[in-house]
Design goal:
By secondary structure, this protein is mainly alpha-helical. The strands form two sheets. It has a three-stranded antiparallel beta sheet with strand order 1-2-3, with no helix packed on it. A two-stranded antiparallel sheet has the order 4-5. Strand 2 and strand 3 form a beta hairpin. Helix 9 packs antiparallel against helix 11. It is globular. It starts with a helix and ends with a helix.
Length: 374
């Protein structure tokens, strides 16, 4: 019986915590995570780490917070992006707030009730299944680490839902938006999104050194690199845009400085007050090296604001960066690119994921039938 109660009462593991924290530190200096762990394990082979005064001072910290921190560190070391880690943390802690039990004592019934709570709360099935998946990933880790004996997610079914299928831009909508682009910077962002099918996170992290003519090496999900390609419009827009820049920022799309200063004047004050949004009469700020942040890249929110503003001017509804990705894939398929290559272009691991992105209509089917079934 004592063995079971020990499993329910979490105690921090100083050795694992030390190895995890040191691995993260070494990673900042370019050391491979696997090599760091192996070297630390070798150095600690004859050393036992114990918490100071553990026999006198019981652990009184937040059990769930401590466990989730260990989980997040392990996923960080495995190469998960900060965005993914933030989602894991938010999903797990949200569940903790509803279930109100230590994660080591949560049962399948608790999680099923939590899912029912989310449904009654009006959350979309796709959102709820994403939260379920985060919990499943956590408990797979917790079971492997010996934190829990049995994975409570084994008896929790996936939530079936119909994936949201958003329409790609029509050709005339693309042309309307093109007509509203004012600077080569705006054109470079617009055409790169449309030509490459990049995720917005991939776009803002492109470095100048990643570009080689029509090819761009982008860092995608799972910290995996892939090559995407620029069409003639995108290549020309980037070339003209870079010719206008006078700064030394290493990113393709740098951020505007966000602090007041004599050199910044009105632009700096406006950007600081409005969280990076650039007023129309200041759209050429990137041509002044004093206004360009020397280190930071453009943030995701600024890209969303830019394309949304262009859409509003052009009279096109629901314009956001991800729709450019869908449009790129749809146009490629319509012009005959095989589904497997479209999937590779988008950086997908499974073809089913790619199919969700594609928008095909009866006219496409009619054209394909004449081409392939005659």
């Amino acid at each position: 019986m004592k063995e079971e109660s020990d499993m329910d009462e979490y105690r921090p593991d100083p050795a694992k915590d030390f190895v995890d924290n040191m691995t993260l530190l070494l990673m900042k200096y370019g050391v491979d995570a696997a090599e760091a762990r192996a070297e630390l394990a070798f150095q600690l082979r004859n050393i036992e780490l114990v918490p100071k005064c553990t026999d006198l001072i019981p652990y009184e910290g937040d059990v769930n917070e401590a466990l989730v921190k260990r989980f997040i560190i392990s996923k960080k070391i495995k190469g998960c992006t900060d965005r993914t880690l933030k989602k894991y943390y938010g999903d797990i802690m949200r569940a903790c707030g509803v279930i109100r039990k230590p994660l080591t004592q949560v049962t399948s019934e608790d999680i099923q009730l939590y899912i029912a709570y989310c449904m009654r709360n009006g959350n979309a099935k796709q959102t709820i299944d994403g939260r379920r998946l985060s919990l499943s990933t956590f408990y797979t880790w917790a079971t492997r680490e010996g934190v829990v004996k049995e994975n409570p997610m084994n008896r929790v079914d996936k939530i079936k839902f119909n994936p949201r299928r958003e329409e790609a831009f029509k050709v005339e909508e693309v042309e309307k938006m093109r007509a509203e682009l004012k600077t080569w910077r705006e054109k470079a962002i617009f055409e790169t999104l449309l030509s490459t099918g990049c995720r917005v996170t991939e776009l803002v992290n492109i470095m100048l050194d990643d570009i080689n003519g029509e090819e761009i090496n982008v860092l995608g999900k799972g910290e995996k690199y892939r090559t995407v390609y620029l069409n003639a419009k995108a290549e020309l827009a980037i070339e003209r845009y870079l010719n206008e820049r006078k700064d030394a920022n290493p990113y393709l799309f740098p951020a505007c400085k966000r602090t007041d200063g004599e050199a910044l004047g009105l632009v700096g004050q406006y950007v600081r007050r409005h969280k990076g949004y650039i007023r129309e009469d200041m759209v050429n700020w990137y041509q002044d090296a004093d206004l360009v942040d020397p280190h930071l890249q453009m943030d995701i929110g600024s890209v969303r604001q830019l394309v949304s503003r262009v859409g509003q001017k052009a009279g096109v509804d629901n314009v956001h960066p991800h729709r450019f990705r869908r449009t790129c894939a749809t146009l490629a398929l319509q012009k005959g690119m095989p589904l497997e290559l479209v999937s590779k272009m988008l950086g997908h691991n499974q073809l089913d994921t790619t199919k969700i992105y594609l928008t095909l209509n009866e006219e496409d089917l009619r054209y394909a039938h004449k081409k392939y079934v005659t």
